[in-house]
Write a structure and sequence with these properties.
158 residues; alpha/beta; Chitinase A, domain 3; 5-stranded mixed β-sheet; two-stranded parallel sheet; 26% strand
Length: 158
């Protein structure tokens, strides 16, 4: 079975969502189904059908999260000695060589990726170019608009 990398924060977020779904949302939906059943004829009961549909979506999400957590290899980058090398979970400051524009990214698992929050998927082109490189190295990233060179300014284990 393949294990997928995940940061401690990513695993914690999934566990919180799972706790919310199981502890709060699931009982609410069960209650809504019970109340809708009391209204009578289930064939034409829109509240019942809506609650059952929501229950199906919540149960599917619960199974999805449980599967992801079961197949996750949680990596605590803060516990790994700092070497200046870009590895999974590190936070990297990179500077565009041409424009000198600096950007900060954390390299995370596919499920955690959110570019707006500065979290890059480990399988993204930029992350693949950065992994294994060290501070002050220059990497070339192939983008739809052409090749872009970045210098690795700083690597942090946070």
């Amino acid at each position: 079975m393949t294990k997928y990398p995940m940061t401690v924060q990513g695993a914690r977020a999934l566990e919180e969502e799972l706790k919310h779904l199981k502890g709060e949302l699931r009982p609410q939906i069960t209650q809504a189904i019970a109340e809708a059943r009391e209204l009578g004829d289930l064939k034409e009961n829109a509240e019942y059908h809506a609650a059952r549909e929501q229950q199906g979506m919540v149960e599917a999400r619960i199974r999805d999260i449980e599967g992801r957590l079961q197949n996750a290899q949680v990596i605590d980058v803060a516990a790994i000695p700092h070497t200046g090398k870009v590895i999974f979970g590190t936070t990297v400051d990179i500077a565009n060589v041409e424009t000198d524009e600096t950007t900060t990214y954390q390299i995370v698992g596919d499920d955690e990726a959110d570019v707006k929050q500065g979290k890059l998927s480990v399988s993204s082109p930029i992350a693949r170019a950065l992994i294994g490189k060290e501070e002050s190295d220059v990497v070339t990233v192939r983008t739809p608009s052409g090749l872009i060179e970045y210098e690795i300014v700083e690597v942090r284990h946070v």
